[in-house]
Amino acid sequence: MTNKILILIILTAIFTVGCQTKSVSDDFNTLSAKQTEIKEEIQPEVTTTAEIQEEQFGEVLGVETEQPVELESPVKLDYPVSFVPQAPYAVWDELHEEACEEAAIIMVVKYFKNENLTAHTMEQGIISLAKWEEENGYEIDLTAKEAVDIIKDYFNLSAELISEVTVETIKQELQSGSLIIVPAAGRQLGNPYFQTPGPIYHMLVIRGYDDSAGEFITNDIGTKRGEAFRYKYKKLLDAIHDWNHELAKDGMTDEEIEQGGKVIISVWQ
Description:
Blueprint: H1 2-42, H2 49-61, E1 76-78, H3 94-97, H4 100-112, H5 119-135, H6 144-153, E2 158-162, H7 167-175, E3 179-184, H8 186-189, E4 202-210, E5 215-219, E6 229-232, H9 233-239, H10 254-257, E7 264-268
Antiparallel strand pairs: 1-4, 2-7, 3-4, 3-7, 4-5, 5-6
Helix pairs in contact: 4-5
């Protein structure tokens, strides 16, 4: 009898433990499922940068979010235009003293045609172009309009004369991929590297701008130190004056060059 009672107690204990184990397992599974549900509920909502910008621009600008948003213009832009001065070998004879127009044009042309620019190619280019100009009735000094014609006819590039001369106009032309050739009253530029008093008439290339400094980045072929030379916006704009053959008949004075029109040349491929 005693043995039967003992066996019954042992079996009862085994069954009790077995049920408790199953119950704990079921409770654990239930808890894990609940924890999973909780984790899913607290996961952050991920929004991409593009979506944030789309939402913000849509709210601020009051436009449909599907519509494209106009991007801001770059603060700085500078094209890698190769530089060689108008006197490639530092020989400032009569030809090279008057070769700023030819040098500016050649520099821009070489950039757009992706051709190498060296002292030799600049020198040969100036000589050849000056000879062609003489044969085709051009005078020593070129107006901006004449420079446009030469760029189109001689070099087969696109060019346009622009009379709305502002900082924004020049920046917009540069942003579109153009380079700018500027006709100027040379002495108004105040370039410290010009031989005093500086050229009465001058042309240079605007290759970029820097809004943070308020400066145009130029290749000024009038000096060997002219690569990426910077002019303040106002300084350069004030100096822009075109050549006038009528005023120059008896020699051009500082007062007369300042009567030249405000124009720039935009050149592109």
